[in-house]
């Protein structure tokens, strides 16, 4: 499966030529174009390997029956390929990848956050709920997202993508979420269903990136994540914002707006960023936040 032939970056919108902190729209389109291409290539590698006998290692395993965090040969191959292309096209941009620690431009304004396969446990088991996720941050703000998903609102694989202040697209075509008013209980993604989630039908897919894409496309109304890493949600947050959604992060007992990734005292390096998040349609996010406070 090659990168989608029409998965070009978003066409110009009738907006200011400058979107974020002096970054030109043309530059963002160039970044999006490459991100879409790389996500599509990652998807092709994943599709080619799915169903075969993969070499799989586990990052943590205290005992034989406690294997956790699988990583496949495809994860490493895809991230290596992405890093090589970024070194050629954007050598001054930093990279935070799940599988490799190398930081080519630590401290730079642009950071590519890459998860070759978010949902590797699903992937190695042949369960098609995962995503190849690429998110680009500018000074911590998600400005480009490109996520290849094996299933979608269109009932096929493809790349969801966007630039900041632009439209959500799937393989180059606009995505306009459609909600059936006859459906009284919408779907939400949760790490563990609780009584406070009783407003919705709950699901756990095993991939935060995939759930962000489903939220952005309107297939899920919201999703809550217990402690995602930056590479799990950087690209997905860009999609959620492009789809008209919002995000909240936990701050003690409160839920506060999540608009950018910022270093903290506990995690001065964004590589180690973690925070409980809720993303989705504004009304659903607010309802879920209130329910979590009351729980």
TrEMBL record:
Molecular functions (GO terms): inositol monophosphate 1-phosphatase activity; metal ion binding
Superkingdom in the source lineage: Bacteria
InterPro entries: Inositol_monoP_metal-BS, Inositol_monophosphatase-like, Inositol_monophosphatase_CS
Cofactor(s) needed for function: Mg(2+)
GO BP annotations, alphabetical order: inositol metabolic process; phosphatidylinositol phosphate biosynthetic process; signal transduction
PANTHER family: INOSITOL MONOPHOSPHATASE, INOSITOL-1-MONOPHOSPHATASE-RELATED
Protein name per the record: Inositol monophosphatase
Organism: Undibacter mobilis
């Amino acid at each position: 499966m090659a990168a989608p032939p029409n998965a070009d970056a978003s066409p110009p919108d009738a907006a200011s030529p400058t979107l974020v902190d002096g970054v030109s729209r043309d530059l963002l389109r160039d970044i999006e174009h490459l991100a879409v291409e790389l996500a599509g290539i990652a998807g092709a590698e994943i599709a080619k390997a799915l169903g075969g006998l993969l070499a799989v290692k586990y990052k943590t395993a205290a005992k034989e029956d406690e294997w956790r965090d699988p990583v496949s040969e495809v994860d490493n191959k895809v991230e290596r390929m992405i890093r090589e292309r970024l070194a050629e096209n954007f050598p001054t941009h930093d990279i935070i990848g799940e599988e490799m620690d190398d930081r080519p431009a630590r401290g730079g304004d642009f950071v590519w956050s890459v998860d070759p396969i978010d949902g590797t446990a699903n992937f190695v088991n042949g369960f098609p709920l995962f995503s190849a996720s690429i998110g680009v941050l500018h000074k911590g703000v998600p400005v480009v997202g490109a996520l290849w998903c094996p299933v979608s609102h269109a009932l096929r694989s493809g790349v969801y993508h966007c630039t900041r202040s632009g439209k959500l697209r799937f393989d180059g075509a606009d995505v306009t979420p459609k909600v059936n008013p006859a459906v009284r209980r919408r779907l939400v993604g949760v790490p563990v269903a609780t009584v406070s989630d009783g407003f919705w039908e709950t699901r756990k897919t095993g991939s935060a990136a995939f759930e962000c894409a489903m939220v952005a496309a309107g297939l899920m109304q919201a999703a809550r994540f217990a402690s995602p890493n930056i590479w799990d949600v950087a690209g997905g947050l860009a999609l959620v914002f492009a789809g008209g959604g919002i995000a909240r992060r936990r701050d003690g007992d409160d839920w506060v707006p999540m608009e950018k990734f910022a270093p903290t005292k506990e995690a001065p390096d964004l590589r180690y960023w973690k925070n409980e998040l809720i993303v989705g349609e504004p009304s659903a996010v607010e309802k879920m936040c209130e329910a979590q406070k009351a729980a």
